[in-house]
Amino acid sequence: MNKAARNERTKLLANALDRASTACVTVGVLAPMAAVLYTGSQPSPWLLGLGVLAWLVVARALHGMAAATLARIEE
C-alpha cells in the first residue's frame, strides 16, 4: 500500500475516533441534561455528576486517541 493510501486510512480512523468522542458527549452529557430539563425529574446530583464525568473522561480519551492517530501521518 502506498503512503497516500495509508495516510487516508489514518485520517479516516482519526475522524471515526473523534466522532465517537462527540457521540459520548451527546449521550452522556447533553441527553441527561435535556432529560432533567424536559421531564422535571430530580436525579441524584452525585449519580448524575458521576455519570457525566465518566462520559467526559471517555470522550477525552477518544479525542486523545484521534490526535495520536493523526500524529502517525507520514510526510
UniProtKB/TrEMBL annotation:
The chain crosses the membrane at residues 20-40, 46-71. Keywords: Membrane, Transmembrane, Transmembrane helix. This is Uncharacterized protein. It comes from Muricoccus nepalensis.
